[in-house]
Every structure is written in C-alpha cells, then in structure tokens.
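in:
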C-alpha cells in the first residue's frame, strides 16, 4: 500500500500533493466504514425462504444459496441442495421419500464423505421478491448440524 501511495505522490505535481493525499485518506476511511455494510448486503442477497412439500406436510425454512455448493447427484448430474437432518425428519417422519441416492461430497473440514440423498417432490424458493417452484429435486441430508451457516436449515446449490 505504501509503495502505491509513493508512486501516486511522485506522479502528482507538488502543489497538488496535499489535496490528492486528502482524497486518498478520505477514500480509505470511507472504504473501511462502508465495507461491513456492503458485505452484509451481499450475504442478504444469498438468503432465501424455501418451502419443502411432500404429500402430507409442508415446511418453510430459511436457506442460503452457496456458490461453493457444487454437489451433484452422480447418476443424473442434477444439482443437490443440503438439508439439515432434523428438518428432513420433520418433513418425512418415518416415511422416507423415493429416489434414494448416495451423494459423494468433500468439504473444508472433512476431506471426503458420503451423504444420503433423496428426491423431494416439490420445493419452492422465494428470493429477492421472486418465487419459483421446482419438482423432483435431490436433497442431501446432512448428518451433522449446519451450524456453520447460523440460522439456515438448507444450503442450496447455485445451479
């Protein structure tokens, strides 16, 4: 940073150095103050509400679209969302849905693993004022709590 500042100051005429330095300092201060607010807006842009449906039950949860979720169902190549185990159990009780698959995955804290996946009949996503319904979506059931994602009960594949 100091090298960039020195380069700029060498290129600016001596009578303009103080105004340029002032502009750079004000700009840097504004960046530091506004940066947390901009990051908060970015996080909110990835939040959504999801309604999961089966023949008997509907559950509405808070979810996040994660650009790092690149899970796919290995046979069809369809994208896979990750659902909290407790939500899955509440949605289906003892009746497991059809379309069982084993979903291979890897994550930062675990190099590789397998998670059970199921075909969910219907999923509705509400995001940024728009609502869209999806049918026959693969959902991987997380065997661990999704605590990394705070209040989110589902991680949606960006595809």
């Amino acid at each position: 940073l100091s090298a960039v500042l020195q380069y700029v100051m060498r290129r600016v005429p001596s009578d303009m150095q103080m105004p340029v330095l002032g502009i750079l300092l004000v700009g840097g201060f504004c960046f530091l103050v506004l940066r947390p607010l901009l990051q908060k807006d970015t996080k909110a842009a990835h939040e959504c509400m999801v309604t999961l449906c089966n023949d008997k039950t509907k559950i509405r949860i808070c979810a996040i679209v994660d650009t790092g979720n690149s899970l796919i169902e290995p046979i069809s190549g369809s994208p896979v969302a990750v659902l909290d185990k407790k939500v899955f159990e509440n949605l289906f009780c003892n009746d497991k849905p059809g379309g069982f698959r084993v979903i291979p995955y890897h994550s930062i804290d675990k190099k590789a693993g397998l998670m059970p996946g199921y075909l969910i009949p219907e999923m509705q996503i509400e995001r940024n004022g728009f609502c869209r319904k999806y049918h026959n979506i693969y959902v991987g059931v997380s065997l661990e709590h999704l605590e990394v994602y705070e209040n989110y009960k589902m991680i949606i594949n960006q595809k």
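note: The mean pLDDT is 81.
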